[in-house]
Design a protein that fits this description.
Length: 175
């Protein structure tokens, strides 16, 4: 469970690092797009200035403006395509992240149930151990009582044996 948990945490960290990388790429693209927009506005100002100064070369500037606009649109389209790709990858990673979160929750629930089961088993073993300990103590007490009684009986038998032996000796002496 711990290994799986660590493995899932590593996957989550990798996914977060990948998401951070894509976010940085998105920010870089946004900065590039901003530069392109600024470049476009500068071109338009330059075109207006040149229009006022050089009416004769107006057509050349119009052609230049159209070319610049096409390039800008192309770059914008490329940027939008890249943004769409990054967005779809982000969604995929987000879904994967949700799946990992679900797996983590499932593992945590499984871990909690196993922990509860372990606790119940431990309590059951503790109760069995206490019962066996109590039975052992009772058996030891009974055996000690039996040993004590047997010693007492042995003492009584020795006394009886000595009395019989004494009576026998007395009887031999009297004979």
């Amino acid at each position: 469970g711990v290994f799986m948990y660590n493995h899932l945490q590593q996957k989550v960290r990798n996914a977060e690092a990948l998401a951070q990388k894509y976010k940085q790429q998105q920010e870089a693209l946004s900065a590039q797009l901003q530069v392109v927009y600024e470049h476009r506005s500068r071109l338009e100002r330059s075109l207006q200035k040149e229009r006022g100064e050089h009416k004769k070369t107006k057509e050349d500037f119009l052609v230049y403006k159209l070319e610049a606009q096409e390039a800008l649109n192309k770059e914008k389209q490329d940027s939008m395509n890249r943004y769409g790709a990054l967005s779809s990858q982000h969604k995929i990673l987000k879904n994967q992240h949700e799946d990992v979160k679900k797996q983590l929750l499932d593992l945590q629930l499984q871990h909690n149930s196993l922990k509860l089961e372990h606790r119940k088993t431990l309590e059951s073993h503790s109760q069995k151990y206490a019962q066996l300990q109590q039975e052992k103590d009772s058996e030891v007490t009974n055996l000690q009582d039996t040993v004590f009684k047997l010693r007492e009986e042995s003492k009584l038998l020795r006394k009886a044996h000595q009395e019989v032996h004494s009576q026998l000796l007395n009887a031999q002496v009297q004979q």
